[in-house]
Design goal:
Strand order of the largest sheet: 1-3-2
Helix content: 55-70%
CATH topology of the largest domain: Arc Repressor Mutant, subunit A
Oligomer: single chain
CATH class of the largest domain: Mainly Alpha
Low-confidence stretches: none
Number of domains: 2
Largest sheet: 3 strands, antiparallel
Number of helices: 7
Order of helices and strands: HEHHEEHHHH
Radius of gyration: 21 Å
Shape: elongated
């Protein structure tokens, strides 16, 4: 028996995120034209038993990540869409942290593949400077870029 003051087991990585990704794959497929998806069609894509998919769907709906349709008993029977934050969490849309990592990878790759020593040194300097900025400030920069806001010089 688990003590009442013990932390609860994680459900995000083990249950909710796999279900959200399965829903996101369905919602993002163009062949269905944005039609609502039966909750049962999420089960195979999640790799989880139906009972866990139902529990995850309830949690995802309560958090505002999915748009559910329910029957008269209040059970989720279809999913009509997902939120913008759900798209980011599922990997369909960029996150500032992910884009910062991509920028660092690109700078490093360009430094390694530059055709001349001068270009190679410039890309290495850029990559070194980007790493020196750090992931927190880098993510803030990418947040501004991904969101379309770039501060202007005065």
């Amino acid at each position: 028996m688990t003590p009442p003051d013990a932390p609860l087991a994680d459900t995000w990585f083990s249950r909710d995120l796999p279900v959200l990704r399965a829903v996101a794959r369905l919602v993002d497929e163009p062949k269905h034209g944005g039609a609502p998806y039966l909750l049962g069609s999420v089960v195979p894509g999640s790799g989880l038993p139906k009972e866990q998919v139902i529990a995850a769907a309830k949690a995802l709906a309560a958090a505002g990540y999915i748009e559910p349709l329910t029957n008269h008993a209040g059970d989720i029977v279809r999913i009509t869409g997902i939120s913008a934050e759900a798209r980011r969490l599922a990997g369909l849309w960029p996150t500032p942290q992910g884009e910062w990592e991509r920028l660092l990878e690109q700078a490093q790759t360009r430094a390694e593949r530059a055709p001349t020593d001068v270009e190679r040194e410039r890309w290495r300097a850029f990559a070194d400077a980007a790493r020196a900025v750090g992931p927190d400030a880098g993510a803030l920069l990418m947040q501004a870029l991904v969101g379309g806001y770039v501060p202007r010089a005065h």
